[in-house]
Backbone:
């Protein structure tokens, strides 16, 4: 079976995330790396956007979910993102997401969480 993967590298979003006092009521950057596998990956016959999943729609969903409300845990945000992408886009068969906070620690470039979830896992 032919598959297609859409990916985002270091999509930067200002999110309300964290459990510390200084993180509440403020935004901080998070980076989202996403690999989104599509089940039906037909070859576009007419080179038109209507023949493929428009990655602008995926980006909008990711940004919206990251900025929707304050989230305490990066794990929660990762789970919500994966669930939303699978629920909103029927073409998506599997997602691998990595969400990181680049300003969490001064002695590393980022800290984060990665999740890998397939449609069959989400329905279980």
Residues:
């Amino acid at each position: 079976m032919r598959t297609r993967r859409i990916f985002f590298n270091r999509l930067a979003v200002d999110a309300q995330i964290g459990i510390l006092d200084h993180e509440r009521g403020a935004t901080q950057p998070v980076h989202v790396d996403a690999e989104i596998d599509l089940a039906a990956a037909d070859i576009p016959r007419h080179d038109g956007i209507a023949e493929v999943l428009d990655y602008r729609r995926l980006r909008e969903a990711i940004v919206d979910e990251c900025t929707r409300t304050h989230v305490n845990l990066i794990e929660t945000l990762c789970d919500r993102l994966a669930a939303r992408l699978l629920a909103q886009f029927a073409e998506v068969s599997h997602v691998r997401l990595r969400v990181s906070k680049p300003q969490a620690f001064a002695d590393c470039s980022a800290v984060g969480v990665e999740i890998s979830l397939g449609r069959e896992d989400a329905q279980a």
Q: What stands out?
A: The domain at 4-122 is CATH 3.30.1130.10 (GTP Cyclohydrolase I, domain 2). Residues 74-88 form the longest helix (15 residues). Strands lie at 4-15, 28-38, 92-101, 111-118.
